[in-house]
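Handover notes (outgoing to incoming on-call)

Open items:
1. Probable nicotinate-nucleotide adenylyltransferase: sequence verified, structure written out, both below. Nothing else pending on this one.
2. Nothing else urgent.
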Amino acid sequence: MNKLRPALGIFGGTFDPVHYGHIKPVIDAAQQAGVQSVAMLPCHIPVHKDLAPSAAKHRLAMLKLAIECYPQLYIDDREIHTSAPSYTIHTLQALRAEYPRHPLCFFIGMDSLHSLATWHEWQALFDYCHFVVCCRPGSQTTLSKELQQLLNERQVMTNNALHNALYGKIFLADTPLLAISSTDIRQHIQQGLSTNNMVDPKVRAYIQTHKLYQPSTTF
Ligand SMILES: Nc1ncnc2c1ncn2[C@@H]1O[C@H](COP(=O)(O)OP(=O)(O)OP(=O)(O)O)[C@@H](O)[C@H]1O
Ligand SMILES: O=C(O)c1ccc[n+]([C@@H]2O[C@H](COP(=O)([O-])O)[C@@H](O)[C@H]2O)c1
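Probable nicotinate-nucleotide adenylyltransferase structure tokens:
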């Protein structure tokens, strides 16, 4: 049988803006999962959010600044440069065609795991990737029956299983709890509050220079 290639990590998000709650947990989770490199995958139009995100060029520029000191992170811009809504199943299908022998590990926060059953063709996602889940404060603590069943069937306790199969497993990483969200950051900026400890200083400077997330002026 053909030996599997090294696992590829993928961390999808709107990243409007990218913050420490994205970067720190994913670095830890990748280490625990034994995944050497993780593609940050900014989406174009998030399919499940009402708000239109900031321009692609700004979200990409902030992401570049935020990952500068992390050689294990890089950007995959395939979703953000398309005009279609970003359905993960389609991206995974494209990645699988490119990487037939690499296990694919899709990184998500615990809140995303709780809402996984609302994703487009969600059950088919497990035919393409594993999920590596980061802790996130404020996520529900009780599991729905559906989610409990999913974990019973698919959860693995050690990372070996992620490297011995191309897809289909769930690995819950034990990552630091960081109570940060992009929504909070946008609100802090609108209210003139500090975003220290939430956002990388280079990203903060970019936000200031480009006057992102300012309160809209009405006359
Ligand atoms: N503080 C955090 N801790 C762990 N995971 C997180 C955290 N913030 C975001 N994530 C995860 O990162 C991924 C991308 O999230 P996203 O870009 O939507 O950020 P967000 O802060 O949740 O944004 P918003 O507040 O605009 O909804 C999701 O899987 C989400 O669960
Ligand atoms: O494909 C879907 O239906 C789907 C529904 C919700 C979220 N996602 C993906 O999950 C990732 C995290 O989403 P978000 O909104 O928390 O930034 C991002 O890559 C989204 O494209 C995908």
